[in-house]
Write a structure and sequence with these properties.
heterodimer; A: alpha/beta; TIM Barrel; three-stranded antiparallel β-sheet; 11 helices; globular; B: alpha+beta; 5 strands; 17% strand; binds iron/sulfur cluster
């Protein structure tokens, strides 16, 4: 046999690590631990993590961009909710603010806003948000042709095969979710939570707005309610999760169970070589609402895993220490491959 | 990192015994003073506005201590009793220290039932997110060192 020759390093494109930041310390920690891109939002409903005390104003964003650029990372601003006719100007102004502050890209869902950004700031890089609900190469290519999007984030409902098919038929970079809380619907099309909260996540920026949440210790356990609707009740040994309707435990035909989704987290570490070979451009970590400690743990583990995978994909093994670190900070204490691995399509 | 999330560490029995006998109000005074010294200036004015007039309770389970304070005039003021604080936190001393030192993730402690939060969720989130934005590297460094020093004793 010939002497083994290492494949050229550039044969596969190295996947980028896209990490969340809800606060300036989280941004710095993500950068320090090797995030290629950090994504964040403004302090209002123009993004899908609109929570009190979270997110960036102009000053903290300017400082954040400066810090990231000095350390070789990029900053992406999520403007991924849908403006209404009466609120259009606020979203438009947010695009201008992001462009003026010098962000590296904006992550947008609304077609009108994409058109505005492409027209007004032709040099600004556009990413199609997961909230844009593009699940096929036709949809992605449409956004590419019309608005020149450079990257699209795939919804978490696609299987690996479906994602692979989309990647092979589009020139647009594809970003997929690698880790974090799951959303079982096609994002951007789910209004489930509005039945309990009166607000759609797609216009107000949250599936469980804090004002609608109540945690209460009752004789039967710790109860979580959303807009008065009992979402779940936890015994001493149970692990509570975020109170969204899709993670609720309900009585259906006399049986009490999670009809939509168990409160689990997505973790695709074991799929990395496959995702890389398919040509996935970037891996997204969910969790802008989480603390700097979470961001540090996830970024550190995923940086190491992505580097290992880029170096020697054939010999890539998920290290138990990685899984242990990630399990320690996961919602629901269980991890799944979500829809990536799914017998039915 | 995040080792704080794996094992519950309680104060050693002799410390617990002493802590339980300490008078409550002086502990609240000391705590509020500490907050004013380390955090007050770091809290954005609009956050202090939102917290104004509300009373908070921090229950240190293993010490059997409840620390009570109110936000008044943008300061943390100790109070002796409170019928219905807007928020009541419950955890052991080690976990509070780990949170303050950024050695533990609050959501993880919450998912693990090691940090219990009762009361107004909106204010709880505001407080959590505000604390996440605050940089107090010197205080955190001291806390981390202290935790390392007493770590073996806390079981
Ligand atoms: S309600 Fe659940 S499924 Fe629907 S968008 Fe929110 S997290 Fe996703």
């Amino acid at each position: 046999m010939d002497q083994a020759v290492a494949p050229p390093a550039q044969a596969v494109r190295r996947m980028k690590l896209v990490c969340p930041a809800g606060t300036p310390p989280a941004l710095r920690i993500a950068v320090d631990n090797g995030a290629d891109d950090v994504y964040l939002g403004f302090k209002d409903e123009t993004n899908a993590r609109n929570f009190a005390g979270l997110n960036f104003d102009d000053k903290s964003l300017r400082e954040g961009i400066d810090y990231a650029h000095r350390h070789g990372s990029q900053v992406l601003v999520a403007l991924n909710t849908y403006p209404q006719p009466s609120t259009w100007r606020k979203w438009q102004a947010a695009v201008d603010r992001a462009a003026d502050l010098g962000v590296d890209a904006i992550i947008v869902a609304d077609a009108g806003l994409l058109a505005y950004a492409a027209r007004t700031h032709p040099g600004l890089r556009l990413h199609l948000s997961v909230q844009g609900s593009a699940t096929s190469h036709e949809a992605i290519n449409f956004y590419h042709e019309r608005f020149g999007i450079k990257r699209a984030v795939l919804p978490r409902v696609l299987s690996v095969e479906q994602a692979e098919k989309a990647i092979s038929r589009t020139p647009v970079e594809i970003e997929v979710f690698g880790f974090g809380s799951l959303s079982i619907m096609v994002e951007g099309r789910c209004a489930l939570s509005s039945y309990a909260t009166g607000e759609s996540p797609n216009t107000h920026g949250g599936c469980s707005p804090a004002k609608a949440i109540r945690w209460q210790q009752s004789p039967r356990g710790l109860e979580s309610r959303l807009g008065g609707v009992l979402i779940d009740r936890f015994g001493e040994q149970d692990h509570p999760g975020y109170p969204t309707l899709c993670r609720g435990r309900f009585v259906v035909n006399g049986d009490t169970y999670y009809p939509f989704e168990e409160p689990t987290s997505l973790n695709t570490l074991e799929l990395l070589p496959r995702l890389q070979a398919m040509g996935v451009a970037a891996i997204k970590i969910e969790g802008r609402q989480r603390s700097p400690v979470y961001v540090e743990t996830v970024t550190r583990v995923w940086r190491e895993a992505l580097d290992d995978c880029a170096r020697e994909p054939q010999r890539f093994r998920v290290k138990p220490a990685w899984q242990e670190a990630l399990a320690g900070i996961s919602e629901g204490h269980q991890c799944t491959l979500g829809a990536y691995h799914r017998p039915w399509k | 990192m995040n080792a704080a999330a794996t094992t519950v560490r309680r104060l050693p029995a002799p410390v617990r015994a002493v802590a339980r006998r300490l008078p409550r109000f002086p502990a609240s005074i000391a705590f509020a003073t500490g907050l004013n010294l380390t955090l007050r200036r770091k809290f954005p004015a609009e956050v202090l506005d939102r917290l104004e007039g509300h009373t908070f309770a921090i229950v240190v389970e293993d010490a059997g201590v409840e620390l009570l304070f109110r936000v008044r005039g943008h300061r943390f003021v100790p109070v002796a009793t409170a019928a219905e604080p807007v928020l009541r936190f419950r955890a052991v001393a080690w976990d509070y220290a780990a949170l303050a030192a950024r050695e533990a993730d609050p959501d993880t402690l919450f998912f693990n039932r090691r940090l219990l939060v009762e009361g107004d969720t909106e204010i709880a989130l505001l407080v959590k997110n505000t604390l996440d934005t605050i940089d107090i590297p010197r205080t955190r460094g001291l806390l981390k060192r202290a935790m390392r020093a007493v770590g073996p004793a806390a079981r």
